[in-house]
Amino acid sequence: MSIVAAESIESFFDEVVEDVLKTRGVDASQSATRYLVGVLAEPQIGAINKPLALSLQEALVTYEPAERFERLRQLGDAVLYGAGFFADHFAARGLENRYVFSIGARAYVSAGAMLRGDSTGLFEELAQRFEQFASVLSDVAERTLAQQPGPQSLLKLYERWLKTGSDTTAEALVEHGIYPVFGPTRGGKGVQ
User: Fold this and answer.
1) Please, how many CA atoms are within 13 Å of residue 6, restricted to the half-sphere of its CB?
2) Taking all residues of the chain, what is their mean pLDDT, rounded to a whole number?
3) How far, in Å, are 60, 185, 192 from residue 178 at the CA level?
4) CA distances, 147 to each of 11, 25, 139, 175, 180 (Å)
5) How large is the average pLDDT for residues 18-45?
């Protein structure tokens, strides 16, 4: 069992996000990188309490501009976080990634359109690269899960590998002495 020490949750996620961006070869602006860290440090997953299209429509027609911006930003953040950490949640409800990504990107584009200055570029970048950033957060989720001690965490990690076939998750399992293999068992995947 190990404990990961960090000065703050932001500094922990800052290191992990920077490493994942480098590993994936994603060239994100410093503003976008900081924004991703912020999404991880303070997730807005509660913003998704209705169907995505309805949440987007309600945010778009909110009369007060400041509230409209905040609702759009929170929806974009929630969808980004959810797509990275809980993609299986969306898939279990029959939502395709393309649809989920389009809702999150549209929320960010709409929020950015309400701004002037440098922030406009940030929200454009978040929208245009939504799928890449969701993949970055997915890798962060896998690395975070891999660092948690105990058999339940290993089971969750293994279940995630069964669903995604992720190399990152497979490497984390190997670090714990579990060797995932492709073969004739359970849909072509198993362990040794």
Assistant:
1) 11
2) 85
3) 47, 16, 7
4) 16, 23, 13, 10, 18
5) 93
